[in-house]
Give the backbone structure.
Amino acid sequence: MKQKLNSITSKAKLVSQVMYDNPHIEERPTDVILHVEHLKMYFKINTGWFRSKPLKAVDDVTFDIHRGETLGLVGESGCGKTTLGRTILHLYKPTSGTIVFNGEEILGKESLRHFRQRSQIVFQDPYSSLDPRMTVEDIIAEPMDIHKSYKNKEERHARVLELMRMVGMSPEQATRYAHEFSGGQRQRIGIARALALNPEFVVCDEPVSALDVSIQAQVINKFAELQEKLGLTYIFVTHNLLVVKHIADRIAVMYLGHIVELAETEELFEHTMHPYTLSLLSAIPVPDPDIAKTHKRIIPEGDIPSPLNAPSGCPFRTRCPKATAECAKTLPPLKELKPGHFVACYHPETNKSGIALLTALGGKKHAKK
Ligand SMILES: Nc1ncnc2c1ncn2[C@@H]1O[C@H](COP(=O)(O)OP(=O)(O)OP(=O)(O)O)[C@@H](O)[C@H]1O
Ligand code: SF4
Ligand SMILES: [Mg+2]
C-alpha cells in the first residue's frame, strides 16, 4: 500500500500546495478525492432550564485526502475522531463547512445520494453493528437493497458470494446468522457490507480495536489487500499508534476537535513537531531494551479539558510543557512548516529526532521518497 503511494505522494504534495492557493473548487486537481474545509460539528448540550451550550466536537477542520491513500486519524478518547468521520459521511449534519468529493461539493440531495453510494463506514464494534437476527447474505446485501443496485435475486446472490470471497469467507456461510461468528469473522462481514456498492472512500472507525491481537493483523492485512485490489481510499481511525504506523500513508493528530499535526507517517515519527504528538509517541512501549533506556516519556499535565469548556487560544495549552502567554491569546493556525508537514503550534519542536524510536518500532530509518 505504501509502495504504491510513493509515486502518488510526491505528486500529492504539489497538489495540496496548489489547492491551498486555489479557492476555486472547479479547478481542484482530481488526485484529491476528498477536500474538507472549515468543517465544524457542534452538538447542542442542555445545561439547565432552557439553556444550552455547543459542544465543539469538530472545530474548523481543513484537510485533503488523496486518491488511494490511507489517512490515519489518531488522538485520545473524546478528541473528535468518530465525529469527524461521521460528519464527513453526513451521518451527522455538519454545523458548517464544505466537503468536496471528486471535485463536486456535497450540497443538496442529488450530490449527497451520489456521495453515499461512493462512500462507506466500517464500525468499531463488530458485535453491535450487525443485526444478530439477519443472515450474512441479508446483512451484506442491505446497502444494495437500499440503493436497489441489482436487477434480480440471482444477481444479488452472486454479488454477495463475490464479496464474501473477497473478504475470505466461504459461500456456505451466507445462510448463517451474525451471532454465530467470532469477532474477526464479523468484522469481515462488516467489511463485505461496506464494499457492496463498490465505494471509493471508506471511513474505518477503530475497525480492529474490539478484536483479539492475534486477529487484528489478519483484518488489517485484509484492509490493505482490498485497498490494493480495489483502489480504495481510507480514513483509518484508531487509538493505536502502532496500528496506524503500519497502515497509514499519512497521519492526522486530533486534539479537542482540532487537527494539530498532519504529515506523512515516517515524517511524523521522525520529525515530530507538535508537543501533543510528541507526548503521544513517547507513550508507545519500545520493545528494544537499549533504546527503551534512553526513551523518555513525556506525560502531559492534567486531564483533557471538556470540549464544553475548551481553553482559549491553543487547545493544548493547559497541558503543554512549552506553553507561553502567546498560546492563550489566539488559536494557532494549521500551517505547512515543511512540504506536506502541517502543524498548529506557536513553538513547534524542530530539533527532536524520532529516528531511534522509529527504528525501535520496526520502521524505516529514512522517510520514503
Ligand atoms: N451524539 C453526541 N451528542 C453529544 N455529544 C457527543 C455526541 N457524539 C460525541 N459527542 C462528544 O463529542 C466529543 C467527541 O466524541 P467522539 O466520539 O467523536 O470522540 P473520539 O475521538 O471518537 O473518542 P473515542 O476514541 O473514545 O472513540 C466527545 O466529547 C463526545 O462526548
Ligand atoms: S501553541 Fe503553545 S500551548 Fe499550544 S502546543 Fe504549541 S507551545 Fe504548546
Ligand atoms: Mg470514536
In short: The chain is about 35% helix and 20% strand.
